[in-house]
Amino acid sequence: MLGRPYHRTESDTMPHTVPPRPKRPRPLPPLRRSDRTAALAGSALAAVLLTGCATGPERSTADGPGNADTVSAVTDSAPAPGAGIEWRDCTEAELLPPPLEGEERPEVEIPEEMRCSEVAIPVDHDAPGGRTTSLQVAILPHTGEGESRGAVLYVAGGPASPGIPDLPQELETVAELREHFDFVAWNPRGVMGETAEFLPADVCGDQGPGYVDVATEEEFDAVMAEHRAVMEECRDRDPEMFDNMDTFQHVGDMESIRVALGEERLNLYAQSHGGVRATAYADLYPERLESVVLDSVVDNVSDPELREIAFTTAMETRFQDFARWCADSEECALHGQDVTERWQELLTGAAEEPLPADGIAYGRAELSLMGGNLVRNAFSWPLFSEAIESALENGDSTRFHETVGASFYTPNVVAADICADGGPIEDFAGYQEYTELTVGLSENLGHGRALHRLPCAAWPHEGVNPPGPIGTEGLPPFLILASELEFSYAAAMTGEIPGSVAVEVEGTGHGLYFFESGDCVVGHVHRYFVDGVLPEEQAFCATD
Fold first, then answer.
1. Is the pLDDT of residue 10 over 70?
2. What phi and psi values does residue 253 have, to the nearest 5 degrees?
3. Which of 418, 495, 505, 504 is nearest to 463 (CA)?
4. Any idea of the CA torsion for 240, 243, 244, 245, to the nearest 10 degrees?
5. Where would I find the AB hydrolase-1 domain in this sequence (predicted)?
6. pLDDT band for position 104 (50/70/90)?
């Protein structure tokens, strides 16, 4: 079913309680700092040496060796910034994905000062002498007097979000920062450029395991088999690339970029899921970091159960905010009604008989997950209220499907990344436990919290980067930004990384330095990067 929920023909409900099971010990990744550092450091240097000096490298592919227009990295005992990269004018290929068949690529305005290139990488950083490929990189050069103080490397989120297309939109945001630093971004493996050709969008981006509720162990096993089959369709296109999409491979790419830039130390600005890569890089290469800003990031260093408790509780609070808005605003399609009661009526009915939409059907857990997506931001509250009203009146979930259903799956290229790291659910009993926990915290939204974690239960290998503390010796203190909704993540991370400070930002925004760009947030970021000054504890930024 390629990323879409199946239709259940029998009425079944998610159990609210299950007998407690002993907790499993958290598996350690097979390689952490000492072993991985040696392996990845070797791969970064090998990528340099494989390609020679500023020439297109020989690379082996699935079809055999061939030439690539890839600019190599060069190392030296005292390298000049960018010594291993030949910058050129950027093209639309770095800023836009290939158009769909029959469509033309839209025009895009490329900033005159922006430069682009490629950096050679091994497909597998644990086997640096093997097949190589390249990543697209871009730079907004330093504009101040004298030499640049180094590079700020933008670690984009997603996962599977390209970094380069964000640069033209953020020229004003980073203008003051560029008086002191170069600002660098790249398009991660599997997203755009040559590596994306290996994992094409039709089977790796537009397909993937769907968010499908299961009520029995037999259903769980059947859905996991379906998920594995869907992921295998993508893997068949390039097994080696698909098998090397985990966080440690992205960290190896970051180190290859650092070497190519000729920087002894990096400044990182990481956003959303980019925080997982940034903290893993910090774990492996603390001596290579000058400063780190984490913005709206996924927390992969603190206790995952406490993290889920805090976030689900915050989401229930958000639902109550939505209910109060409905009571006060005529924009709400349910104005004058008991919103919580109507929502529970819908969920209970969907648990007994999933609601159809476009040939499929959504049950209680699916609607709960969709509701969580819609309740997060106030601008989507009118849509949420209309979807509830429509479902109750018409007995179908068409409005939910039209609003959220198109993205109701984990793209295969994302699954290859996050599932390789490891997930919190391993079997049906684990799914029940997770659901019991979240429903106990939020009767309104808790039924769907485990659902978006479920696809990774189909991953056939042990995760390499499960949540857990990172080494902190030699690390700089981090600046961590988070909205009120996500602040529990930031607060937990400051407890794991000594000296770090979290800034709470009013509202529910995500991507606060780039996409929100308020003066308060931008000021904190620039003072930290430029002057090394962190804000006071419990700093708060109101929305501009």
1. no
2. -65, -40
3. 418
4. 130
5. 173-334
6. confident
CB atoms within 10 A of CB 120: 26
For residue 348, what pLDDT is reported? Answer: 97
Q: Which residues contact 188 (CB under 8 A, 6 or more apart)?
A: 135, 156, 158, 159, 160, 161, 162, 163, 250, 253
User: pLDDT tens-digit profile of 218-241?
Assistant: 999 999 999 999 999 999 999 999
Rounded distance between C-alpha atoms, residue 344 and residue 466, angstroms:
35
What are the structural domains of the chain? Answer: 88-95+108-207+238-302+468-541 (3.40.50.1820), 304-458 (no CATH)
**Higher pLDDT, residue 339 or 9:** 339
Distance between the two ends of the chain, CA-based, in angstroms? Answer: 45
How far apart CA 384 and CA 391 sit, in angstroms, is 11
- Between CA 233 and CA 228 the distance in angstroms is 9
The conformational region for residue 54 under phi > 0 = left, psi -120 to 50 = alpha, else beta, is left
Lowest mean per-residue pLDDT among 62-66, 89-93, 277-281, 357-361? 62-66
- Distance in angstroms (rounded) separating the CA atoms of residues 540 and 412: 38
Give the DSSP H or E segment for 493. Answer: helix 487-496
CA atoms 510, 491, 269, 144: torsion sign: positive
Residue 511 region by backbone torsions, left for phi larger than 0, else alpha for psi between -120 and 50, else beta: left
Q: Is the pLDDT of residue 2 over 60?
A: no
Residue 412 vs residue 97, higher pLDDT: 412
Residue 5 CB contacts under 8 Å (≥ 6 apart), including other chains: 210, 211, 212, 213, 360, 361, 362, 363, 366, 408
Residue 94 contacts residue 138 (beta carbons within 8 Å): yes
For residue 323, give the amino acid letter: A
pLDDT at 209: 96
Q: Which of 471, 521, 500, 541 is nearest to 33 (CA)?
A: 471
Instruction: Please give the Cα distance from 233 to 423 (Å, whole number).
Output: 21
Residue 43's pLDDT is 54
- In sequence order, what are the residues at sequence separation of 6 or more whose Cβ sits closer than 8 angstroms to the Cβ of residue 89? 110, 115, 116
pLDDT at residue 100, rounded to an integer? 66
**Closest CA relative to residue 284, chosen from 465, 529, 132, 78:** 465
CA 468 to chain centroid: 17
- Measured distance CA(523)–CA(176) in Å, rounded: 10
Whole-prediction pTM = 0.84
Beta-bridge partner residues of 58: 67
Which of 84, 152, 95, 151 shows the shortest CA–CA distance to 118?
A: 84
Contact by Cβ (8 Å): 298, 271? no
Strand segments (E) across 244-307: 266-271, 289-295
